[in-house]
Amino acid sequence: MSDAAVRGASDTKAEVLASIRGLRAYLDELASVPDDELTTRYALRRHPWPNGLYLKARRIAAELQAWFDALPVVGREAWPASLRHAPLRRSAPPLLVWGIGMERSTLRRACAALAKHPSFTGFAPVLVTDVADFAFFSRLAWLIEFVTPLSGEGECYALRKTQRIAKLYRGAPALPASACLELEQHADEIRRALYRSGG
After folding, report:
1. Among 42, 68, 86, 164, which residue has the least CB neighbours within 10 Å?
2. Regarding the domain delimited by 3-32+77-196, which CATH topology (the fold level of the hierarchy) does it fall under?
3. What is d(CA 198, CA 190) in angstroms, rounded to the nearest whole number?
4. Where are the domains of the chain?
């Protein structure tokens, strides 16, 4: 292998690893944005205190249970990303594949490369995309989060949907779909980068 080929391979690897770190930072930023409109629109009203000692004790117990559930020490049940008809176990950890802004043919090649690669068979891939190619996606048996480009007044729907996806899959490994094209050459480095980036 020539010097130029070695330099080109290392540059490609560095770009892929940088894109994984950049995607993780972007998703963390999206997940940290509070959704004030949602919480004010669907705010829960507090019921008045009930009469009687037994009902008051039950309410206090319920509030304590809600407080303990909100603590970060107590682990929440993960959002199930695997489908019932998929060959994966139901508790497979999700792998977010970020394909927003990619062309249809490139996204197809990336998804096919990830689907056949043995390093990622234990994950339940979740494809986030704005490409409406559902015939191809249904054959993958992956969960698809479709971010439709809607226009109109008010806040951008695609931004709100991506914020919701970032919150829903917070902490899950996230992989740019373009990195899937480099799995043949750099699979071990990509997998290590996924775990190092917080996923």
Report:
1. 42
2. Rossmann fold (3.40.50)
3. 13
4. 3-32+77-196, 39-70
